[in-house]
Structure formats: C-alpha cells, structure tokens
Amino acid sequence: RDPAGVTDPGPALPQLPPRPPRSFTIHWLVDAAIFFVAVLFLALLSELLWAQAPLLAVGPGVKTGIPIRYDDPREVGPDRIVNSVAAKERYGAPVIVVDFGTSTNFDVVSPEGEYVGGVLAPGIEISMEALFARAARLVKVDYAVPPSVIGKTTVGGLQSGLVYGFAGQVDGIVGRIRAELGAKAPAIATGGLADLVAPHSET
N or C end of the chain, less CB within 10 A? Predict the structure, then answer.
C-alpha cells in the first residue's frame, strides 16, 4: 500500500503481441494441457492458441482424475502428472512413462490407476554435454545410431554409449519398477529423444 492507504496496483502489464496470421490449418487438436506458469504467460498462450481449443493449466490443487500417492504431492512436476494421466487414458493401468527430457523421468501408474512416484535420472543431453565439457579430447557428436555397438572410431564409440547406454538404463530401471509393482506394466516413451533410444530398448 502507498502512504495514503491505497493499494498499489504495481507496474502495468506489457501489451500482448498481436495474434499472427494463421498460416496452417489444425485438424486434430481438441484440447490442450499446459503446466502452471505466470498469469501473463497464460494470457499470451490463450492469444496464441489459434485452434481455440480448451486450455487447462496444471498445477497444485488441479483435479486431474488420477490420485497422487506421493509423500508431498506438491513436489511432483506437472509434466509428470500430465504424462501419467495421458498414458493411463491411452494404455490403461498399470503403466510406466519414460520421458526423455532435461532429465529422464520414469513415472509409474499402479494397477489401481494411482500415480505412485517414479525415478529421476540425468537427461541424455545434459549427460553428454557434461562429458564433452570435462573430457578435452572428446568432440561433440550427432545424436544418431552408430553402425555397430563396438565403436571403431571415437565418434562411433560415443554414439554407441549414448544410444545403448541409455537404452540399458531404461531396461534396468523399468525391470526393477515392474518387479516392485508386481505387474507387467507397459513402458511408454515420450520426449524429444525418445525415437533415438526407444527402438533399442528391450522393455
């Protein structure tokens, strides 16, 4: 409040940019869920959602239809909840979602259809960037499948470690999750690098 006791409205919000002309037609988007962000960004997204689809901001307190069995539900990232809801809706329960993002997230929906937690591991890009930064003689490589598991060059060896190393990580963690669940839950891959790793996973 200012000295006169009047509530200070704070700085004026910047004007939203004009809606750009639609240069394409959306045929399949029926609704959208996004993670909880600032009010201004929500308004911006509303302006830019040219498909005029329903918009749901997911954050603490939002009912998603899936019970959260976590010691502190507020700690669970909205992206993990959205992944779990979508996987349960499409594949049923139990189900395991493996999200190849900044971190590699393993999120678990129980046979009862409840979100019961998961595993967080360093992501592919972060791991490879750390390796390149700390090993002076290693060069950055394309994220691609090598011609063989046994690398004949440094590039091939790095690509083999990337693809088969993370595929092995997925197999190991998913196998332990299934054993703990006591159920043969399908594993669903998503995220930017899912197409690189998932075809080489046995789970």
Answer: N
